[in-house]
Every structure is written in C-alpha cells, then in structure tokens.
Amino acid sequence: MEEAKSRSLEEDFEGQATHTGPKGVINDWRKFKLESEDSDSVPPSKKEILRQMSSPQNRDDKDSKERFSRKMSIQEYELIHRDKEDENCLRKYRRQCMQDMHQKLSFGPRYGFLYELETGEQFLETIEKEQKITTIVVHIYEDGIKGCDALNRSFTCLAAEYPMVKFCKIKASNTGAGDRFSSDVLPTLLVYKGGELISNFISVTEQFTEEFFAGDVESFLNEYGLLPEREIHALDQINMEEDTE
C-alpha cells in the first residue's frame, strides 16, 4: 500500500514543469532542450543522451538508478554545449524561467488603465476600500489647466506598464473640496497606500520641462520610491545581456 502511494506521488511530481534545487533545475533544462530541438536535426546519439539525462528516475529500474547516479562525462557535456544552437536554446530556457517566475510572484489585484473618478464619494471609497498592498496614484486636475492633459496621457501609459498600481484621475470640481484645489495648485498628485496618504505633490508639472512624457513622470515617481519594479524588468535585463553577446 505504501509503495503504491509512493509511486502515485512520484507520478504526480513527474507531471510538474518546475523542480526545485540544483538537480531539479538541471533536469528541467535538459528536458526543455530536448523538447525544443528539431527531431530531424538531432543526431540519434545526442538525442539519446539528452533523453536519458532528462527522464525521471524509476526507483525499480536498476539501470536507470545507476545512470542517474553517475556524473556527466566530459564527452556528454561537450556534446550538449558545443553548438551555437545550444546557446540559443539556453537563452530561451532562461527567458521561459523568468516568465514563469514573474507569473508566480505576481499577486494582488490588476488594473492596467487610468480610472476616472466622478464624485468625492467615489474618490473616498477608492482610497478606503482598496487592498492595503495596492498603491493608488490620484491626479487631481481641471480642464484647461496647463500640464493636466499631458499628465493624464502619461498616466494612461504608466497604468499599462504598472498594472499592479491603481492610477486614477478626478476633476477638482468633483472632489467636494474644490476650494482646496484652485488652479494655482493644479495639477496635484496624491499617493495612497493602505488608506493612508503617503505622498502629495502640488503643481507637480513644475518638476518637468514644458513638454514631458510618461518616462519623465515615471522617473519622478521612482525618485520617491512610489512605483514597484516593473514585471518585465528582469526580462529586459536578459534581453540586454543577449544583445551584448
């Protein structure tokens, strides 16, 4: 009974795509490489070595146990790594691993666009009822005020790049506190997290040149540590490394 249960668990584990630990990572790489190779272009000897090194171990198979207990020979290592195609395959494998990692680590609500808040009640509800882990960036604006339109366009771009941040806009006249947001202090940025105001910037466009874009706003918010790391940042780093190789 215990042996059957153990085998069942092993079968479930073999169906998983990701292993942990150095040996598991190596086996994942070998399996990925074997699957990504064109079967018509791989010599039978190379394919067999890759298949043997990537297949899960069967505890009841003595030959299999001996095969997996031995160290990789220099000939096997050179056979796998000598071609340029191997390098390309490794890059694809690294990129896939990073994508899988980001998918697993990404949690919490997702937004992805600029929200228009219509009333002061809606503004307060957004601040008070959003999850505590969520950063909320609110642009208080008014039509005809210099820089407001450009800031809204920038937020539209940033909302797509930072879907875990909730970007909102609301007209000063709709906040219920329009007397506090005169044209002299617009555009104003308010940043909240966990229901608390953590940063505020009045006449924020004074921090930029007359013509500014999303990248300028992104850099400004990053200076104050108000944006998380972009999810694609690590993938961008890999792409940069590949371009220099």
UniProtKB/TrEMBL annotation:
Subcellular location: Cell projection, Cilium, Photoreceptor outer segment; Cytoplasm, Cytosol; Nucleus; Photoreceptor inner segment
UniProt entry tagged with the keyword Ubl conjugation: no
SUPFAM superfamilies according to UniProt: Thioredoxin-like
GO biological process: regulation of G protein-coupled receptor signaling pathway; visual perception
Main location: other
Residue ranges of every copy of the Phosducin domain listed in the record: 1-241
Keyword annotations from UniProtKB, A to Z: Cell projection, Cilium, Cytoplasm, Nucleus, Phosphoprotein, Sensory transduction, Vision
Biased composition annotated in UniProt, kind: Basic and acidic residues: 1-10, 58-68
Domain of life: Eukaryota
UniProt cross-references to InterPro entries, sorted A to Z: Phosducin, Phosducin-like_reg, Phosducin_N_dom_sf, Phosducin_thioredoxin-like_dom, Thioredoxin-like_sf
An annotated GO cellular component: cytosol
Region Disordered: start-end pairs: 1-68
Assembly notes: Interacts with CRX. Forms a complex with the beta and gamma subunits of the GTP-binding protein, transducin.
Role: Inhibits the transcriptional activation activity of the cone-rod homeobox CRX. May participate in the regulation of visual phototransduction or in the integration of photoreceptor metabolism.
Similarity remark: Belongs to the phosducin family.
Listed PANTHER family: PHOSDUCIN, PHOSDUCIN-LIKE PROTEIN
UniProt name for this protein: Phosducin
Organism: Ursus americanus
